[in-house]
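Quick log. Single chain, no ligands specified.
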Amino acid sequence: MGKLTIMDHPLIQHKIGIIRRSDTGTKEFREIVEEIAMLECYESTRDLELEDTEIETPIAKTTVKKLAGKKLAIVPILRAGLGMVPGMEEMIPNAKIGHIGMYRDPETLKPVEYYCKLPADIEERDVFVVDPMLATGGSACDAIERLKGHGCRNIRFLCIIAAPEGLARLQKEHPDVDIVVGALDDHLNENGYIVPGLGDAGDRIFGTK
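-> predicted structure:
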């Protein structure tokens, strides 16, 4: 069973409070999304394997820990997921980056895929799927299904805000996936938006509305 982590760190809560505000501008919104992604990346990499290596400090030789060389990949769900990538890259700069493009049909609220480009060896990598909002869960579930179709078996999903409906669906359809959530909100409204939420994350990150 995948592990669910709902972040309760004061910095996360403070920063989410800022991006919820309707008067937070595009530049500040984008920067804080990157910072939250960095903090969530820290949490979601807690169980990466380490190995010993011998080094020489200015004083003496010693044995230290280093990452065991497991290949990593970051896969944002376009387009809002792109806003989380810089923060993830700061923490794991050697990760390869794939992209899965989806949009939500305004009538059915179901995801429609329009783009998929992944590292050639994606099946060998630990994959971090990122999207700021987990609303109905449709895009996240479909993206993870696509990755599993490419042979991925170690997948983690990171979002900033989740609705209970989307979280329940993701856990039901992909019970093996670890999930890191910045904040769990109250419900979805009739238009499929998270309440209280923060509006459309993609529009707010890129200043398109």
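The domain at 4-206 is CATH 3.40.50.2020 (Rossmann fold).
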